Amino acid sequence: MTLFDNLFIRNIEAASYRENFLVSAIVSVFLIRIFLHFTHYPQLGSGAIHIAHILWGGFFMMAALLILLSFLNEKAAVVASILGGIGFGAFIDELGKFVTSNNNYFFQPTIALIYIIFVLLFLISRFIPKYHPFTRREYLVNAIEMIKESAINDFDEEEERRAVEYLRNCNPKNPIVKALKQLLTHLEVEENPPPGFFTKIRRAFRHQYYIVAHSGIVVNAVIVFLVLQTVLTFTQIATVSLFRPALTFSELGQLYASILAGVFVIIGLFALRFSRVEAYRFFRISVLVTLLLTQFFVLMHTGWTDIFGLGANVFALVVVNYAMTRDERRNELKIKKDL
C-alpha cells in the first residue's frame, strides 16, 4: 500500500463533479467577459476603491469548500462543484492583472494562458485517474458511500446497480463486503427518479451529438474541413515566407504547430485507402495538435476573435471520436462473426 493510498481514497463518481467544475468555470469566464464588454467595464466602488471580481471568485470558492466540509450528501457535492467552478472562473479571468507589472486586465495573451490552464485541467481530470487503477479498498469505500445515500434518499435502481458493481470488485473474503452484500438484499429499491433539469439538457445534447456524429455526411464534411484547414495552413506558410521573414514567437509557434497538424491530416488521407479507423486516428491526432498547440499560439495574438475556429475544431474532434469508436466496434463484430 502506497502513501497515496493512505492519504487519499478516490471517488469513482468524481468525473461528473469535475465536469460540473470545468463547465461552470468556462461559462463563468465567458459570461463575465460578455457582461463587462456590453456594460463598458463598470467600476464597483468609487474613487480609489475598486472591488475586483476576483473577490467574488474567492467568495464562491470559499462557499464551495465550506459546503464540502460541512455536508456529507451527494447533492451538496454537486452544488459545491458548480459554485467552485463559478468562483474559479471569476478568479482566473483576472489573470492578466497578476502576470503584468501594470495590472493590465486587457493583456492580450491572457486568454491563451486561461485556455491552456483549462486544457491542462481537462487532461489531468481525464488521464490521472486512468494512470493508477482503482484498488479493492477504493471500490469498498465507494460502495459504502453509495449505500450511504439510502439513509439520505430513497435507494434507486441505478444506485443499487453501481453498489453491486463496486462490491463485485472488492475482496469477497472481507467481512465488511459480506455484510454490505447482505445489507443490499434487505434495502428497498425504488424506481429511478425522473431526470433533473441539467440531466435532461445533458441527455438532449448527447442525443443530438449521436445524430450528428452518426451521419456520414457530417463525417465527410469534417474531413473536408480538416483538408481545407491544412491547405490554408500551407498557403499561409508560403505567403509568410515570401512577405514576412521576421515572425513573432506566437506566430512561429502557430506556424510550426499548424505544419505538424497538417502532416497528420495528409497521413490520414493516405490511410483512408486502407483503413478508415486508422485514418480517423491520424485525423484525431491532427485535431488534438490544433487544440492543444495551435490554438494556444493563435489566442496569444488574436484574443477572442478566433473562438469560432476553436469551436469548429472541438466539433471536429467530437465527430472523429465517435466515427472512430463506431468503426472499431463494427470491425470487432465482423471479426467475431468470421470466427
Provide an overview of this structure.
Helix content is 77%, strand content 1%. It is mostly helical. Strands 1-2 form a two-stranded parallel ribbon. α2 packs parallel to α4, α7 (136-152) runs antiparallel to α8 (157-168) and α11 (216-243) packs across α12 (249-271). The longest helix has 32 residues, at 307-338. The two termini are 42 Å apart. The model has no long low-confidence stretch (mean pLDDT 80).
Overall helicity: over 70%
Order of helices and strands: HHHHHHHEHHEHHHHH
Sheet having the most strands = 2 strands, parallel
What spatial order of strands do you see in the largest sheet? 1-2
Global morphology: flat
End-to-end distance: 42 Å
Describe the oligomeric state of these chains in a short phrase.
single chain
| Rg measurement, Å | 25 Å
Mean pLDDT: 80
Number of helices: 14
Number of strands: 2
Low-confidence stretches: none
Structural class: mainly alpha
Percent strand: under 5%
Overview in brief:
Helices cover 77% and strands 1% of the residues. The protein is built from 14 helices and two strands, in the order αααααααβααβααααα.
Which helices and strands occur, and which strands form pairs?
Layout: H1 3-7, H2 14-38, H3 53-70, H4 74-92, H5 95-98, H6 110-131, H7 136-152, E1 155-156, H8 157-168, H9 175-184, E2 189-190, H10 197-214, H11 216-243, H12 249-271, H13 276-302, H14 307-338
Task: Please give a handful of descriptors for the protein shown.
two-stranded parallel sheet, 77% helix, single chain, mainly alpha, 339 residues, 2 strands
